[in-house]
Amino acid sequence: MIPKIETATSDEIKTFQEEKLSELLKYVNTHSPFYKKLYASKNIDISRIKTLEDLSLLPVTLKEDLQKYNDDFLCVPANAIIDYATTSGTLGDPVTFGLTDKDLDRLAYNEAISFDCAGIKEGDIVQLMTTIDRRFMAGLAYFLGLRKMKVGVIRVGAGIPELQWDSILKYKPTYLITVPSFLLKLIEYAENHKIDFNNSSIKGAICIGESLRNQDFSMNVLSKKITDKWNIKLFSTYASTEMSTAFTECQHGVGGHHHPELIIVEVLDEQNNRVKNGEAGELTFTTLGIEAMPLVRFKTGDIVQLYSDPCLCGRNTMRVGPVIGRKQQMIKYKGTTLYPPAMNDVLNDFDAIESHIIEISTNELGTDEIMIKIAVKEPSDAFLQELKDHFRAKLRVSPKIEFTTNEALKSLIFNPMSRKPIHFFDKRKSIV
Questions:
Q1: Are strands 281-287 and 298-304 parallel, antiparallel or unpaired?
Q2: Between β-strands 125-128 and 152-155, what pairing exists: parallel, antiparallel or unpaired?
């Protein structure tokens, strides 16, 4: 089911995208109040934008623009909107996205070709372990994509290991769609209730919200903990409400595959210039084929690296590597630049840590301060010292760490207003 454009040459892909870009710019300049006003105010002649390189002549779009001028991004009348979705609001006020019937078809197509990357085929049964309600685009997208593929769907939703195993044993799904850390809870439940999980129907899991790999594509601590016990294949997928597009790994696990018919991708530096090949920068995208709320040069805040060598699966499209971190969550601590995923990896090295949160604040000197709160089975000074030494070995610095209880952390991590577990809390006076 690999789309023809994804096996085309890089020159053919570039020519294809430039034609789509021209169509998009004419569309937003006519129908988007935001872009029409923006381009007029900067005297931008969109007819001059002919190549992907010419994108640098256009201003970037920021999350703050979406928050401040949300309605001005809509290109269709309200009666054309079929579905309303909102962003999670993890790093700011949530933004509403309207989707037309055509946009929902595009969303289904995106997920179908993305799941195909991970090996899901007609005849499979997939257990959907994420919410499909609460204006959550991803859950709906997964369902639409699987339906398009003629794949069976079990809509269990998030949490409740007992219910998850009841559905697995009853309906025998072949794949799960879940937050990977929840797989550890499934394993724990199975062990405690004598469920032979390695002889279950599950072949693999499409994992959202948390990283599975290190920057060299080797499995990180979290994915090793899962696969050391459960012999299933894990696939990472990266997406956002704003892009309405997913980057999903194939069986070779060397980055999420780009779909050039759906999105144009750039990686930019602090000055909004493209970084050199092999360098990390901020993922910036331009959506193609979206009717209600297309975006041009939208900066995601996610720091990534792109890979352009052909994949063994036959796709010639670029691939997005594991997210290094979020720009707004970058921490400068004792001369070292840190991102939360790196600290999560260190904490995941210790089975004794049952749960944790990372709090960042501004100290009296105006610099970043890190406080990690952990719940462990048997707190001790010796364990605390071992953990601090491990931080120094892995990240060159050791943050402040204090013990607390699972009960104290639970209400913070599993906030009922959030769709995902929250482990990072930014209390700085000004965001970096």
A1: antiparallel
A2: parallel
What is the sign, positive or negative, of the torsion defined by CA atoms of 399, 405, 409, 410? positive
**Residue 249 corresponds to which amino acid?**
E
Phi-psi category of residue 151: left, alpha or beta, with phi > 0 → left and psi -120 to 50 → alpha:
beta
* Average pLDDT value for the chain: 92
Backbone angles phi, psi at 402, to 5 degrees: -135, 150
* DSSP for residue 7: G
Helix pair 101-117, 137-148: axis angle to 10 deg:
70
Kindly report the backbone phi and psi dihedral angles of residue 23, in degrees, each rounded to the nearest multiple of 5, phi listed first. -65, -40
Q: Which of 2-11, 297-306, 370-379, 393-402 has the lowest mean pLDDT?
A: 393-402
Q: Are 308 and 277 in contact (CB under 8 A)?
A: yes
The residues that bridge with 362 in the sheet, in sequence order, are 368
What does the alpha-carbon distance between residue 335 and residue 396 come to, in Å, rounded to a whole number?
Answer: 10
For residue 15, give the DSSP letter.
Answer: H
The residue behind tokens 């704003």 is: 242
- Find out whether 126 and 153 touch, Cβ atoms under 8 Å: yes
Report the C-alpha dihedral over residues 377, 378, 382, 383, rounded to 10 degrees: 0
Tell me: the pLDDT tens digits for 173-193? 999 999 898 999 999 999 999
| Most distant CA pair in the chain, distance | 68
Angle subtended by helix axes 10-31 and 33-41, to nearest 10: 100
Q: Distance between CA 364 and CA 374 in Å, rounded?
A: 24
State the CB neighbour count (10 A cutoff) for residue 62.
13
C-beta of residue 92 within 8 angstroms of C-beta of residue 66: no
In the three-class reduction of DSSP (H, G, I as helix; E, B as strand; rest coil), residue 34 is classed as helix
The C-alpha torsion from 64 through 68 and 72 to 78, rounded to 10°, is 110
Residue 137: partners with Cβ closer than 8 Å, 6 or more residues away: 85, 97, 99, 107, 241, 244
Angle (CA) 81-74-291 rounded to 5° is 65
The model's pTM is: 0.84
Counts for the chain of helices (H) and strands (E), in that order? 11, 21
